[in-house]
């Protein structure tokens, strides 16, 4: 099975991008197979955390058809996790035929340069990986592959093509999704810009806040997260409580994330689990407006709540 670019390379490029973008404002952790994503991972400081699962495309013999292949057993593991701990799938929407290495060599570029924005100064065609990587939540992937997942659980195939991109005369055609519908992906850089604010209500993420900010509260509305983090910015000290998104517009406490069993990837197709855990400190997040006292919280809507 020929891949357009190794998944390990995509994981490294993603990590380099996040390090350049956030410097000391972010923490990264790369879990081993079968490891709880939280064990020994991110600092217990106010901010938020998400996971990203890097996927590549596989090629046909001619190199003019790219497929994003999903390990259904691994996806099933991810979907069994609390919503806030599920990863984003990040993968290429390719603009080239054949392997990335061969495609860049054909125009006189070193493939290693594709991991850096400087590559776009060397060519009239945009090659930087951040321009062609996109994301979907694990939940969205599960919905698109609902039929294939049902067949897998009934003893069927353990992998499925999420999306296929074909080329004609060197030009990419419209992507064909597994369910036959059209889907809007999240551009790689847009993902992080929106996470710095509030993200979408349906996105998986966890927020870490001082316990005094949420004292006496059992559920937090998605649209109130930024204002509560603004409060934490004023006094970030104290015990940190982890709140996970539920996917329905609220966040609830995750009492012991280290106790969540997470063996995704341990028994998959190839055993690889190229996930990155990303922690963003308060300094990496866009400041919100300090909320009103909880007893008189107004009904607000967040511009990125859908």
Task: Explain what the structure shows.
The chain is of the alpha+beta class. It has one domain (about 5-95, about 130-295). About 20% of the residues lie in helices and about 25% in strands. It is built from 7 helices and 15 strands. The strands form 2 sheets. Strands 1, 2, 5, 6, 10, 11, 12, 13, 14 and 15 form a 10-stranded mixed beta sheet that branches. Strands 3, 4, 7, 8 and 9 form a 5-stranded antiparallel beta sheet that branches. The longest helix is centred in the first third of the chain and has 16 residues, at about 5-20.
Summary, kept brief:
With 306 residues, this protein is an alpha+beta fold. The protein has 7 helices and 15 strands. The chain has one domain.
List keywords for this structure.
disordered C terminus; 306 residues; 15 strands; ten-stranded mixed beta sheet; globular; alpha+beta; 7 helices
Task: State the helicity in percent bands.
Answer: 10-25%
Q: How many distinct domains?
A: 1
Helix and strand succession?
HEEEEHEHEHHEEEEHEEHEEE
Distance between the termini: 38 Å
**Bulk shape:** globular
Largest beta sheet, briefly?
10 strands, mixed
- Counting DSSP H or I runs of 4 or more residues, the number of helices is 7
Oligomeric state of the chains present here: single chain
Mean pLDDT: 87
